[in-house]
Amino acid sequence: MLLHRFTSGFETKKEQLRLSIIENITAILSSQPPSWNEELISPLLIQSIANLGFVNPHRVSSKQKISELSISLTKLINIFEPRLKNIKIDFYFNKKESNRLEFMLEGYYIYERELFDIALNSMINIANDSFYIKESYFA
Question: N or C: which end of the chain has fewer CB within 10 A?
C-alpha cells in the first residue's frame, strides 16, 4: 500500500476514503477474535476492539449456517466499519473446493453527499486459514 502511494502519486480524498474502507474490511476479515463465551461477557466488550475479528467458519455447509455467518459478518462490519452502508453478502458454494468459502460483499459509502459503491470478492481457505480479497468494481 505504501509503495503504491509513492509510485502512483497522491490519491484524492474520495480515493483515500475508499482505500481506507477496503483496508479496514480486510483487517476485520483477516483477524480472529478471542474465543470467549459471548453469553458471559458484557455487551460493551462484544462491541469493543477487543472483539475485533471474524470467527473462523469451520465446517460451514448448511444454508442455515451460511445465513448465520452472513448475519454475523454484517453485524461485525456494521460495528467496526460504520462508513460502509447497506451491506449485502452473497455466499457461493463450490462443492469441489469444500475448504473454501467464497462470498461477495457489497455496500456503499458517502463522500460529499454522493453515494459510491464498493464490491469485494472474498475467499477464505478454511484448511490453511488464508484469506483473499479483491475489489470487483467501484463508482
Answer: N
